[in-house]
From TrEMBL:
One of its GO terms (molecular function) is triose-phosphate isomerase activity. It catalyses: D-glyceraldehyde 3-phosphate = dihydroxyacetone phosphate. InterPro entries: Aldolase_TIM (IPR013785), TIM_sf (IPR035990), TrioseP_Isoase_bac/euk (IPR022896), Triosephosphate_isomerase (IPR000652), Triosephosphate_isomerase_AS (IPR020861). This is Triosephosphate isomerase. Belongs to the triosephosphate isomerase family. It is found in: Cytoplasm. It is an enzyme of class 5 (isomerase). Substrate binds at residues 6-8, 162, 192. Its EC number is 5.3.1.1. Keywords: Cytoplasm, Gluconeogenesis, Glycolysis, Isomerase. It comes from Sulfurimonas paralvinellae. GO terms for biological process: gluconeogenesis; glyceraldehyde-3-phosphate biosynthetic process; glycerol catabolic process; glycolytic process. Homodimer.
Amino acid sequence: MIIAANLKTNLTRHDTASYIEEVDKCAKQSNQEVFVFPAISSLDSFSAEKVEVGTQNAYPTVNGAFTGEIGLEQLEEFGIKTILIGHSERRHILGETQEFIAKKFAYFKEQGFTIVYCVGEPKEKREAGKEAMMEYISAQYEGIDTSYEKLIIAYEPVWAIGTGLTPTLEDIEDIHTELKQKSSAPLLYGGSVKVTNAKEVLSLKNVDGILVGSAALYAEHFCTMIQYADEIEK
């Protein structure tokens, strides 16, 4: 399974280094693939052996006049070859369009990056019914090479991110079954995943892992989720 932590705009560089060191210790005792996406200012050349460190964002360029962005040149300095693309906070708060997201995807695909690609729906689309919800999510696949061999897809219902709300286990399993028809890539679930529900979510059919936000900020909690995945696979 794939167990991933999106630290968002949290933890200093010093705290992130300590966090990755601690997570790497438990990851080395696990059979799972473990990813950590630190804040951009906390990226570094970490000495982790088992944890794959990725970037939460980057501009599709080597370098250039893109104030406030980070490019391939900066990522290469730290040996980073994994990127999170399409997260709902980039779409809804920062206004990234599907056209720009697809451009970013194509660029980092060309560079051979592992891409964790996020899709999901806001509350009003879910309440509009399954057909409307799936139509909305399907639009997020436009311009995306779903057969890319280094693709990982993360389904995150927007209304569940950081709210403490989660779909029912039946709903998660149902949407994952639908999305598996769109791509054979590993499919993660994200959206208020925490220690108290991670094991149940990981046990569901067609759930290949989890993408965890705020609940992953404590290394001990994140390590517990890694251990859950090991227990399920025994």
